[in-house]
Design goal:
By secondary structure, the protein is of the alpha/beta class. It has a single domain, classed as Aldehyde Dehydrogenase, Chain A, domain 2, CATH 3.40.309. It is 24% helix and 15% strand. The radius of gyration is 20 Å and the shape is globular.
């Protein structure tokens, strides 16, 4: 896990974790702090963090965190898991982890996200379109579709 982009980004994550835990929202399973040590001096590091037992209105379930924090939410089956995942107003990306290809295809089809990874996360080849839905934005980066906003089409019809 590498450093975050800058000090304000790391501070935002630190504040989110500290505020949530101070209100006893969730259970910290690991991480939750800025690492110390000489090897972390040059960079904006934050330990990978896992938080469970979160309330439905948790900041980690209702914002785009963009940091090394993984909220864990229990669900009674695939349908409930999809319902929980789709209940957010955001839809940039989702991950499905399963050994069952039918489960992966069903979830991928029903998840309201711009990209769905199966048994992986954050791998985006440069030729694959990437972008969100809902409040995560519109449009796509990468792939041939990324050129669309920069092009102007023209139609010319000629009758000889």
């Amino acid at each position: 896990m590498g450093p975050m982009n800058n000090a304000p980004a790391r501070e935002r994550i630190r504040r989110m974790v500290d505020d949530s835990l101070s209100r006893e929202e969730g259970t910290l399973l690991c991480g939750g702090e800025i690492p110390d040590g000489e090897e972390y001096r040059d960079g904006f590091f934050y330990k990978p963090t896992i938080v469970a037992d979160l309330p439905e209105d948790s900041v980690f379930l209702n914002t785009e965190v963009f940091g090394p924090v993984l909220p864990v939410v229990a669900a009674d089956g695939l349908n409930e898991a999809i319902e929980i995942a789709n209940s957010t107003r955001y839809g940039l990306g989702a991950s499905v982890w399963t050994h069952d290809i039918q489960t992966a295809m069903t979830a991928s089809s029903e998840l309201d996200a711009g990209i769905v990874w199966v048994n992986q996360h954050l791998r985006i080849p440069p030729d694959v379109p990437f972008g969100g839905v809902k409040a995560s934005g519109t449009g796509r980066e990468n792939g041939s579709g990324a050129f669309e906003p920069y092009l102007r089409s023209k139609t010319v019809l000629v009758k000889p």
